[in-house]
Structure formats: C-alpha cells, structure tokens
Design goal:
- The structure is a single chain.
- This protein is an all-alpha fold and about 80 residues long.
- It has 2 helices and no strands.
- Helix 1 runs antiparallel to helix 2.
- The protein starts with 16 loop residues before the first helix and ends in a 6-residue tail after the last helix.
C-alpha cells in the first residue's frame, strides 16, 4: 500500500497531531461522563452507580479514541 498526502503520517510534522486527536476525544468523553456523574448524584443516584457511569463513558471514549487513532494511521485490512 502506498501512502498518499491525505494520510496523517505522510509528513513528519503531522505526527504531532496523533496524541492531540486521540487524547482529545478520550478527555472530552471522560469530562462528559464526570458531568453526568454530578447530575446523577444530584438526582439521588447512588455513588457506586454514578461511578460506574463515569467508567463506562470513559471506556467508550477510549474505544472511540483508539478507533480514530487507527483510522488516522490508515490501519485497516488490505
């Protein structure tokens, strides 16, 4: 497979964007989960259930971030 100019790692300078996009997605998702935890606690949800919500949203955000990272690096079946 040949790389094209549209692939992220084509230019050495573009490699700096990989952690930016990957961690950015994960951090935003986790931040939303933490906000949801605060709302859940305000609505009398048990702390253990609220914590489970945060871990679930954070894990989904991490999975989405990994998917985006693979797409950025053009990792797919040939």
């Amino acid at each position: 497979m040949t790389r094209t100019q549209t692939d992220l790692p084509y230019d050495a300078w573009n490699v700096r964007l990989i952690p930016h996009y990957s961690f950015g997605v994960w951090f935003v998702a986790t931040h939303m989960g933490l906000g949801l935890r605060a709302v859940a606690l305000a609505h009398q949800v048990s702390p253990s259930t609220a914590d489970r919500i945060v871990w679930t949203v954070g894990a989904l955000g991490a999975a989405f971030a990994v998917t985006i990272t693979f797409a950025q690096l053009s990792v797919h079946d040939a």
